[in-house]
Write a structure and sequence with these properties.
Layout: H1 7-28, E1 30-31, H2 33-37, H3 39-48, E2 55-58, H4 65-73, H5 108-122, E3 128-133, H6 140-152, E4 156-162, H7 174-182, H8 185-198, H9 202-219, H10 221-227, E5 231-237, H11 241-251, E6 257-263, H12 271-275, E7 282-283, H13 307-321, E8 327-329, H14 339-344, E9 349-351, H15 356-360
Parallel strand pairs: 2-3, 3-4, 4-6, 5-6, 8-9
Antiparallel strand pairs: 1-7
Helix pairs in contact: 1-3, 3-11, 5-6, 9-10
């Protein structure tokens, strides 16, 4: 069991796991970059927690290949995404380590909260962890779950895997907007002028200062989650295995909703994926080298256009003819072939982040 391994053994395991992931996905194709980015986190979770009795809820399947390898499915990885083989996502019927079946995103906090509340009602001492990405946490369902958890205060841990790289550009950024505002010359000048006036009325200055700090806290990551009722820790280096293990051990028995913010690199350990996280989000099967001793002349077959490229071209054609046409995407600009549309018709293009229900409504 992973819980019995010492620090050096865990470090060796991380290297072996990353190497096997590179090999296995090269044989079958599939999601790639996200799994490489959570190798240390996956090892740390299975080392610290008593899985599968403790529940780990992964928000999307893209990052669960290392989890599958560690939970008894290593020899089956060659069947990934094939008929009768392993699913590309967590699947409860496949393994009791897969605590929740997921496809897309933003569901993990709701699911983990339900498990935590159920364990409390049944008197079961069970730890529940939700792992969610920086893209998925923009989804409305994730925000709803965070707000509800702050009210119910279940014993659960939410881990924000922040690789600053959702498939589409992360939309939103209150913190970025306010950071720019607070760093602006206008704001600084106003603040200095107000300080000179209010310092003569000390209570008024103290009130203004506290109000400013509170407003900053409302949009800064740590205090935002604190305001929602979570105990926030982070951000931590998600590739620092000893640090992750130490922090998870410290947080393991804390009461109430906990929030751990980690920073990771999508495609970690494979340079091409580190440099092009979008291109290496998923890869095709890497064909074996030909065994023929003498080179053969092979006529290359021209690849057909991808569906999203056809759709994207159609969208632009229609937009040229009809100015009423508007494009809305839930953080899937590239995957939906809307890159050209976004550039050519920026005033008619909306990326609402991973919030499908909002996009549709």
């Amino acid at each position: 069991r992973l819980g019995e391994l010492d620090s050096q053994q865990l470090t060796d395991l991380v290297e072996e796991l990353r190497a096997f992931l590179l090999y296995s996905v090269g044989q079958t194709g599939g999601h790639f970059g996200a799994g490489l980015g959570v190798v240390e986190l996956t090892v740390a979770l299975h080392h610290v927690y008593n899985t599968p009795d403790d529940r780990v809820v992964w928000d999307v399947g893209h990052q669960t290949y290392p989890h599958k390898i560690l939970t008894g499915r290593m020899k089956q990885m060659g069947s990934m995404r094939q008929s009768g083989g392993l699913a590309g996502f967590p699947k409860r019927a496949e393994s009791h380590y897969d605590s929740f079946g997921v496809g897309h995103s933003s569901t993990s906090i709701s699911a983990a909260m339900g498990m935590a509340l159920a364990a409390a009602q049944q008197g079961i001492d069970r730890k529940v962890i939700a792992v969610i990405g920086d893209g998925a946490i923009t989804g409305g369902m994730a925000i709803e779950a965070l707000a509800h958890a702050g009210h119910e205060r279940p014993n659960m841990l939410v881990i924000l895997n922040d690789n600053q790289m959702s498939i589409g550009h992360n939309t939103g950024g209150l913190a970025t907007m306010f950071a720019k505002m607070w760093a602006s010359k206008t704001y600084i000048a106003m603040r200095k002028g107000s300080k000179k006036v209010l310092e003569k009325i000390r209570p008024a200055w103290e009130l203004a200062k506290r109000t400013e700090e509170h407003m900053k806290g409302m949009v800064a990551p740590g205090t935002l989650f604190e305001e929602l009722g979570f105990h926030y820790i982070g951000p931590l280096d998600g590739h620092d295995l000893p640090g992750l293990v130490h922090t998870l051990e410290n947080m393991k028995n804390l009461e109430g909703p906990q929030f751990l913010h980690i920073r990771t690199m999508k495609g970690k350990g494979f340079q091409p994926a580190e440099e092009d996280p979008v291109g290496y989000h998923a890869i095709n099967k890497i064909e074996d080298k030909p065994k023929h001793k003498q080179p053969r002349v092979v006529t290359a077959k021209a690849p057909g256009p991808k569906y999203q490229d056809v759709f994207g071209q159609w969208l632009c054609d229609m937009a040229e003819k009809d100015k009423r046409l508007v494009g809305i995407t839930p953080a899937m600009c590239e995957g939906s072939g809307m890159v050209d549309f976004a550039k050519r018709f920026p005033d008619r293009y909306y990326d609402v982040a991973i919030a499908e229900q909002h996009a549709l409504t």
